[in-house]
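JOB MANIFEST
job_type = single_chain_structure
chain_count = 1
residues = 291
[input]
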Amino acid sequence: MSGQPESEDLGRIVWLASYPKSGNTWLRALLANYLLDTPQPVPLDRLGKFAPAEASRSPYDQFAARAGIPLDDRAVYRWRPQVQRMLARRARSFVFVKTHAALTLVNQVPTIAPEVTAGAVYVVRNPLDVAVSFSRHMGCALNEGIGAMGSDQTELPIVENLVHEYLGGWSDHVKSWLEAPGLSPYLLRYEDLARDPERSFGELTAFLRLPQDPARLKKAVAFSRFEQLAAQEVAAGFAERPAGAERFFRSGKVGAWREALSPEQAERIVATHGPAMRRLGYLDSDGALVF
């Protein structure tokens, strides 16, 4: 594509990875407001430019047009490594890139190309709360959403603005990133970010070796509050809101599952994802729910 040798150092992408509805957009807003340091909150429509989505459809459509073939899942994975290399080449040093894909192989092609990877931040959220938000996001009943989160067949299909992303089940998604050989992603829990955003996000900025500025940190947190993001969506819309969804930013509340899930539904999630939940601190040593 670029005429540059494949031996060039392309390890420039820091992945912002998560299962859908786990706080990825909030993290991108925090990073954008911190690094861009603008006098007003960074508009939602700039998030995709600051931290592009790896699954953004536009470059894949360009490849398909040049090849004269329709864009289907097989074509997506044929070009996925090239699209990721293109994102890396465009970066002057490092670039944050959003993904919801599990870290695995699809059609014998890695969902995440190791040669472009500098590191990763993995955002995780209590699967009980994820189930509520994920079901609404996908426009399906709670039981259907809960089932999808436990299935190795779960995927996000090609739509108007995005290409296919393989998710699998929530537990396997977590495992795919946290146990990826040689990666060691930074684990960021949604609940820690919600409870003390300045401390939690501040620790991440230190890990990423970003400039340390307490006043700038405080402003970024204020500019990225859930209420601020929701108000922006109401005023100007949000391109990442799924077709048919009333809104992207609905609640963001920790523990909202207690009002939305039946005891049977909560038990079903814990039965499916208990080991991963215990590993991440969502269950204590006695198996009791923490959040």
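[summary]
Confidence is low (pLDDT under 50) at residues 1-5.
The longest helix spans residues 73-90.
exit_status = 0
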